[in-house]
Amino acid sequence: MTEQDRFDEFVEHAAPDYNRPPAGVPRDAMWARIEAAQRAHRDQATVVPLRPRGVSRWVVYVSAAAAVLIVGVALGRWSTGGGTGPAEVATAVAPAAGTAARPNPRELSPAYQLAVAEHLSRTETLLTAFRADVRAGRATDAQLASWAKELLTTTRMLSDSPAAADPKVKRLLDDLELVLAQMAQLSKSPSQLDMDLIDHAMSERSMMPRLRTAIPAGRFSAGT
Amino acid sequence: MDVLRLIERAIAGDAAAERALYEAHVDRVYRLAYRFAGSDDLAQDFTQETFIRAFERLKEFRREASFTTWLHAIAVSVSLNGLRSVKRFAARHTELDEGLAVGSTRRESEPDLKVRLWRAVDALPEGYRTVFVMHDVEGYTHEEIGEVLGIETGTSKAQLSRARGKLRQSLAAFAKEWVS
Fold it and tell me: Which of A18, A52, B16, B54 has the fewest CB atoms in 10 Å of its CB?
């Protein structure tokens, strides 16, 4: 047997262990993300023809998100008894003494739930579109930072409202705030490194799976 | 169910047909992506992107070709493009890290011959590594590689031979170990 043959034999023996994949394939998790990306893609395709010429898709999303939030918060305040000035909201979110006074998340008004779900759904659309652009090496929409800023404002409003009484929602909103704050600071033509860093921050905080878990299935369609 | 029928239904917007196509092919696509990427996160990303693109372009699928070959061609393209981006990103970080680590010394234990081989595979030029991974690691035939990569069978064979030559060269200092 020549040295070449022995080398080939060694390679044949060792090669199957090169980057050996794990036994289990995370089929369901990947499928959930594929479905979400397709949904986001379809929603964008639905919105684009409807918007006036020259108006970015981000602007359309932001306007819709802001409108839903305002209606949601207004309905929430009305349905929880009417006397809901800023002082009451502040009491509800006061960290130490306010814990007992905070509303039970299970009793949170449907209007707040609607506002949160709509907001998360729209944020998911932004993050999915951003992620797809990063991974495909495409330039992001020039209005990305401006949309992120609007969503950041909404995130902070929700974070300081009774909607954040549920600790899970609160944590999610806090993490979203960090990611959106990074996006809001992006320039109009961000570098690939900046985008990769945000993408990394999203993965590290498992933003997409947590968002998708928090959004009630089948009820909200982002971007419409 | 027949693949062509599933494809027709998926093109018509049947989500169940898309899911059936996904279930039938996801394991092999993920496995291939993992072999290229060497990480679960990246392999998942590449697999997802492969199916998203495939479903978007399903109308472009020419029925005389094999769906598996068509899908694997997308998977290879997505994985290689993705890895290029990751390498660019890593290279920038390495520059920063090297800047910080000036003056420090690090000693590594000697890796065994298998590990040396894997490192040498990582260092192969992209074309050689692609054929090596598909043929020697994943067991594709040269005909299949030719169809997936859009190259002649002979080119695939030549690339593999050069890849092995390079690996042998890289491990020449340890020839006694594989000969023994």
Answer: A52
Q: A144: which 2 tokens? A: 């990305």
Whether B22 and A137 lie within 8 Å, measured CB to CB: no
Helix axes B3-11, B15-37, angle to 10 degrees: 110
Give phi and psi for A77, each to the nearest 5.
-65, -40
ipTM of the complex: 0.85
- Alpha helices (H) along chain A: 3-14, 27-50, 57-79, 86-93, 110-136, 144-159, 167-184, 192-204, 207-214
- Shortest Cα distance from A3 to chain B (angstroms)? 7
Give A59 or A86, the one with higher predicted confidence: A59
Q: Identify the closest residue of chain A to B22 by CA–CA distance.
A: A31
Q: Residue A10 corresponds to which amino acid?
A: F
What single string gives the DSSP state of each residue in B97-124? HHHHTTT-----PPP-HHHHHHHHHHTS
Q: What is the mean pLDDT of each run of 10 residues along chain B (180 residues)?
A: 89 94 97 95 93 93 88 95 78 56 46 89 96 96 96 96 94 77
Chain mean position to CA A149: 13
The number of beta carbons lying within 10 Å of the beta carbon of residue A179 is 24
Cβ(B46)–Cβ(B79) below 8 Å: yes
Tell me the nearest-neighbour CA distance from B107 into chain A, angstroms: 24
Inter-chain CB proximity A19 and B85 less than 8 Å:
no
What is the pLDDT, as a whole number, of residue A129?
Answer: 78
CA distances (Å), origin B44, targets A176, A203, B122: 22, 12, 20
The closest CB to that of B51, out of A3, A34, A203, belongs to: A34
Say what angle helices A27-50 and A57-79 make with each other, to 10 degrees: 100
